[in-house]
Design goal:
CATH topology of the largest domain: Rossmann fold
Low-confidence stretches: none
Structural class: alpha/beta
Shape: globular
CATH architecture of the largest domain: 3-Layer(aba) Sandwich
Strand content: 5-15%
Mean pLDDT: 91
Radius of gyration: 29 Å
Number of helices: 31
């Protein structure tokens, strides 16, 4: 669960740069007149004729097979109600982004200005030629039931109303596993459902499909228990009306085994929980605040199994565990609907995945040593990259077995590999780092707190629980900037070296002892400690802070020098190096050294290789290293090829478990096809490189900056490798998010230092 989201931050996020969250990007080259002629006139006529002759060829020649529409009329948006189609657009754009991020599915959001169900159905049905699937979203009940049913009957592409079925699928998986843990059968349990909207109804129907008995289910709405003798019941509520002699939620809770809330905050009391049977299962799914506070619930019953919709508690019921992967599987077999068999397959796949051994990288992403099936881990975590390769194949198989697939899959191993490549399996590593940081936030000192970007980043870090910011700068200036930008950092410590006479004197004595034989006088030390980079480095050295982040407004060399003089390199490191993470559409790559070592010798390159390998593994990625040159395995002579070849030989001898290759050109290092054909002996021929070691500083610095500006890659870094204590340097002009990212890395680095490890 995100911390406090400030109104202006949210607005700025959506309006910065190109407004909104999505764009259209061509998938084919359009750089020449021939390209244009192929893409449009006259070349485009050829696929048009093929599709006219065989309509199914639309999947062969267009994007339809990977295109989902997110459609709403804005009548039931989040907890905001009927706010209209225009106001719903940010939500629908967000849903489209999740489709792309988690399943590699392209998506258009479509907001329709129509509240009449019949007219809405007609409009959506007319879109069938364009899309491979339809995700209905935020449409109020009971109209949503009629709309979805009619569209499923009339259209021949996958349709799902995620508000109904997403929550049902995820909560069903959690319920199956919870019942297994407490030794209860679905057919025997008594279930109380609070809420009678789309999600509640769909959840109840799916529980029944899994074996729950309707006679044992009590559904409540704002008026109390929905009873058979209540006058004026609509068709939906009548289906779940009970004949049991109960009238209120409190009466219904007596002897209940399961409570599922999709209603409002704080409607349950401790007394209600105490009235439930042994080992009660409580899914309090109201957002942002559940039907009963999580901590109050577990304090009330030590035998409770609890799930919420929040990410800051165990067992988050999050729809992102379902809809991207369900649509992925449905699209890939060209299913003409999403049926009950496919939903149940998703349920069972989710439930089964939670019982498997959880990879270390998932546990680390959530800041714990281990995740294991049990009361606190009923369903997988959203950051688990195995979801796409487990759920999508299960859904696809169910589609095939139930007869709704039009393009069966035959090679399941190849399909699973294709799924991983669609999303770039390591794309979420920064989120993983942030989650790790949140588990044990550390004190991060910012040397440039007189800059509004630093203060805004500090606000995010504090609000999100990522770090404990310490601010260096003039107090009056900081207060003025906070007031101007509507920030509240009143509980963050502020130090201004010019006003910290006693502390500066103490630090100067220590610095003098460190540097008295390296040209520093005591007077020099006092003077230097007026510089906030020196002061911040001393705070880290003395244990008054856990990490230092600086460099937003100063050159790299000016920023790093004080830390090298005061803190120095780690005991097992002979030098430091700077590594960038380059996040591109092709994947994530690691570049080193881009900031420190000007013209490294072969021995120095070996040191950089070792530091970079350790840095890459920090992000739970196994490095595949290419030591770059203008030569391929001795094809060209010269000082640089010779130096890189020597470094590679030495590195292979020193790091036996490391995949490292060179000398090699950058494009060849990435091309497995060329390597397999021309250089089959290469250690990178199977998978290609993900880590690039540059022959000198100029090459590394130029490469990452060109990739940012021309290639459109996002850079994280420079991450300083080999320091004795955590120090990380920002790029000049870093964005607020880049500062947050670097601070999160610094926090996790500080966590490692507690275990005598380092980046």
């Amino acid at each position: 669960m995100a911390g406090k989201i400030r109104k202006q931050d949210a607005l700025q996020y959506h309006m910065q740069g190109q407004p909104g969250k999505i764009e259209v990007v061509p998938t084919k080259n359009l750089s020449t007149q021939r390209d244009l002629a192929l893409a449009y006139s006259p070349g485009v006529a050829e696929p048009c004729k093929e599709i006219a002759a065989n309509p199914d060829d639309v999947y062969k020649y267009t994007s339809k097979g990977n295109l989902v529409a997110v459609i709403s009329n804005g009548t039931a948006v989040l907890g905001l109600g009927n706010i209209g189609p225009e106001a719903s657009k940010p939500v629908m754009e967000g849903k489209a982004v999740l489709f792309k991020k988690y399943a590699g599915i392209d998506s258009f959001d479509i907001e329709i200005n129509e509240s009449d169900p019949d007219a809405f159905i007609k409009i959506v049905k007319s879109l069938e030629p364009t899309f491979g699937g339809i995700n209905l979203e935020d449409i109020k009940a009971p109209e949503c039931f009629k709309i979805e049913k009619a569209l499923r009957e009339q259209m021949h592409i996958p349709i799902m109303h995620d508000d109904q079925h997403g929550t049902a699928i995820i909560s069903s998986a959690a319920l199956l596993n919870a019942l297994e843990l407490v030794g209860k059968r679905m057919a025997d349990i008594r279930i109380v459902i609070n809420g009678a909207g789309a999600a509640s109804v769909s959840c109840t129907k799916l529980y029944v499909a899994l074996g729950a008995q309707p006679k044992n289910i009590i559904m409540c709405d704002s008026k109390g228990v929905i009873r058979k003798d209540r006058p004026g019941l609509d068709e939906i509520k009548a289906e779940f009306a009970t004949a049991l002699p109960v009238n209120t939620l409190q009466e219904a809770m007596k002897g209940a085994d399961v409570f599922v809330g999709l209603s409002v905050a704080d409607i349950l009391t401790p007394a209600d929980l105490l009235a439930m049977n042994a080992n009660p299962i409580v899914f309090a799914l109201a957002n942002p605040n559940p039907e009963i506070d999580y901590h109050l619930a577990i304090k009330t019953r030590d035998d409770i199994i609890m799930a919420t919709g929040r990410s800051d508690h165990p067992n988050q019921v999050n729809n992102v565990l379902g809809f991207p992967y369900i649509f992925r599987g449905a699209l890939d077999v060209r299913a003409h609907e999403i049926n009950e068999a496919m939903k149940l397959a998703a349920v069972k796949a989710l439930a089964a995945l939670a019982k498997e051994a959880v990879p270390d990288f998932v546990a680390k992403a959530y800041g714990v040593d281990k995740l294991q099936f049990g009361r606190l881990y009923l369903i997988p975590k959203p950051m688990d990259t195995r979801l796409i390769s487990i759920i999508s194949p299960a859904v696809a198989k169910a589609a095939m077995e139930s007869g709704v697939a039009r393009q069966p899959i035959t090679d399941w191993t190849a399909y699973e590999e294709e799924l991983k490549k669609r999303i770039g399996i390591d794309q979420k590593f920064m989120s993983n780092v942030i989650n790790r940081a949140k588990q044990n936030p550390k004190r991060v000192v910012f040397a440039e707190a007189n800059h509004h970007k630093i203060l805004k980043a500090a606000q995010v870090l504090r609000d999100e629980g990522i770090a404990q910011p310490i601010l260096l700068g003039n107090r009056q200036e900081i207060e003025a900037l906070c007031h101007k930008h509507q920030l509240d950092l009143s509980d963050c410590p502020v130090f201004y070296p010019r006003e910290e006479e006693a502390l500066v004197e103490r630090y100067a004595d220590i610095l003098y002892k460190k540097r008295q034989r390296k040209g520093f006088t005591h007077s020099d030390c006092l003077k230097r400690l007026q510089d906030r980079n020196y002061f911040g480095a001393m705070m880290v050295e003395m244990g008054d802070a856990d990490a230092l982040v600086s460099g937003l407004t100063k050159d790299y060399s000016e920023t790093i020098l004080p830390s090298l003089q005061i803190i120095g390199t780690a005991d097992d490191a002979r030098r430091v190096a700077g590594m960038y993470i380059m996040m591109s559409k092709r994947g994530n790559f690691f570049f080193a050294d881009c900031t420190v070592n000007v013209d490294p010798t072969p021995d120095e390159l070996v040191d950089i290789i070792g530091l970079a390998a350790q840095g890459v593994r920090f992000f739970n990625v196994e490095p595949r290293m290419a030591v770059l040159s203008y030569s391929n395995f001795g094809s060209n002579k010269g000082e640089i090829p010779q130096r890189t070849r020597e470094a590679v030989q030495l590195a292979k001898e020193k790091y036996k478990d490391l995949v490292v290759e060179g000398d090699i050109q950058a494009n060849i290092a990435l091309s497995t096809d060329i390597q397999r054909e021309v250089y089959p002996f290469s250690a990178l021929a199977k998978e290609g490189a993900n880590t690039f070691i540059f022959p000198n500083l100029a090459a590394g610095n130029i490469a990452y900056k060109l990739l940012m500006e021309i290639g459109g890659a996002e850079a994280i870094g420079p991450i300083l490798l080999g320091m004795k204590k955590p120090v990380h340097v920002l790029q000049l002009g870093s964005s607020i998010q880049e500062i947050v990212n670097m601070a999160a890395i610094a926090v996790v680095d500080a966590q490692l230092h507690e275990k005598n490890m380092h980046l």
